[in-house]
Amino acid sequence: MNNSIRFLIILIASLCFSLNGMATTIRCTNIDYANEQLTFYAFADPISNNNKVAFTLQFNSEGIGEASLQNDKPVFTFSEFGIYRGMLLLEPGETIDLKLPPLKKKSFADQKNPYFQPISFWFFTNSGEMLNDKISRFEQKINELTDKDFNALYFQQSETAFKRLKAGIDEAFPEKGSESFELHKQLRLKLMEADIFRMSPEDYSAIFQSISSEFWGHQSFKTLFDKTFDKQLSFSAKAIGGSKVSAAVAGENINALLDFISEKYKLSGTIADLVLLKMLHDGFYSNEFPKSAIKNMIASKHFTNNPEIKIREAAKNITSKISFLETGSEAPAICLSNLNGKKLCTNNSQEKFKYIVFADVETVICKEHLKYLSRVNELFSKNLDIFVVLRKTERAGIDSFFEENEVPATVLIDSENEAISEYKVRSFPQCFLLNEKHQVVFDDAKAPLNGFEQQFGTWLRNELFMRQRNQSR
Questions:
Q1: C-alpha–C-alpha distance, residues 452 and 31, integer Å
Q2: For residue 192, which of 233, 164, 218 has the smallest C-alpha distance?
Q3: Are β-strands 335-338 and 343-345 bridged in parallel, bridged antiparallel, or unpaired?
Q4: CB–CB of 250/296 below 8 Å?
Q5: Which among 468, 356, 351 has a CA at the least distance from the CA of 422?
Q6: Percent with pLDDT over 90 in the chain
Q7: Relative to the CA of 174, which of 10, 67, 151, 446 has its CA 20 to 30 Å away?
Q8: Inter-axis angle of helices 179-196 and 219-229, nearest 10
Q9: pLDDT for 273-321, tens place per residue?
Q10: Beta sheet of 343-345, edge-to-edge order
Q11: Contact yes or no for 248/257 (Cβ under 8 A)
């Protein structure tokens, strides 16, 4: 291929790329954030709760950061930094100068609290005239009006008070805004109405029928969608006549379930497919339905070959989520440095079972669990390798604890939270039992003090007996 042809191909490709998306530029100057990095995420889909990186705002030593994003439609993004969760709705082709709050990092207690919830807010911009500014003002106004009439709204369930709130919103925002803003306004008010009047999902679910899939990744859509259809498969199966729903799930009858959604929620077409995926996702984790049937339906051509790409993506994400670290699946190898700085991997040996304990030595409960590993090792050292994967803390505290207690384990330090993130660890301690081939043995391995020795001991006796019997045949 000569240079002229190569140049022509590159030119055509770049032109196509520029036509398919417009560059949105995000800028910020704030000395508090010097040398900091804010990663902004977008929802991978409305169901799986997986996120994907949208862009990264890297600040230099003077607190100046800039990033860009190619998008041809409004994109909702968010970033969690310090004690905050900032939300940003990006419109194509705009240049946005962000305002950031004073940097306030998590306290020690916040870092150790598995239930910590960051303070959510919508970013303001320096211009004050961007879409996000309007949403920010809308949120402030709706909170102001809610606080003013809180008792009448939530305790007396007053329709007059709710109409007064809506009138206040219309007065504050008389002009019609962009489609993104109008949808946000509509869904936020519907969420409030559903909460105030304790509405059943079927009382308002038809609102979703007219919403284009391009808005499925917006926060207001996801919030109302979650509230409306959360655990609805389990609820419907337990209701009067719910045996039909249970039978449809067990029989992998997608058409029957779509008919049920059409009849109860007044939804059809692509949005009904999304609702069904949400129900199947929640039903899988409820342990009330045959998991194999749910997995088969999600993997069916109805979803994987669906004409709507966002349905296909959601089905793929859900399949990946529900099969991750399930019994029999191969667990990702953990390769980290030990206390001596030597890099080790959990899959280096295939001689023994592997008990992996994710822990934080700055918490008392983790220390007690780690101390009990001496008893676990005493019972199972012949068949079990023990690994402790530590959340990053002060190195002096780590060294002194393990020197004092002589914990019989290979200690790996996850300084960048890579393994913690990959294994989706949310609280400490969290444990996994793998076989010699690095495959998951239990969906839920017990922690050392929570009955692991009984769980593993009973299973190990049976496993070794079965292996011995198979060899003798």
A1: 50
A2: 164
A3: antiparallel
A4: no
A5: 356
A6: 80
A7: 151
A8: 30
A9: 999 999 999 999 998 999 999 999 999 999 999 999 999 999 999 999 9
A10: 343-345, 335-338, 410-414, 384-391, 353-359, 430-434
A11: yes
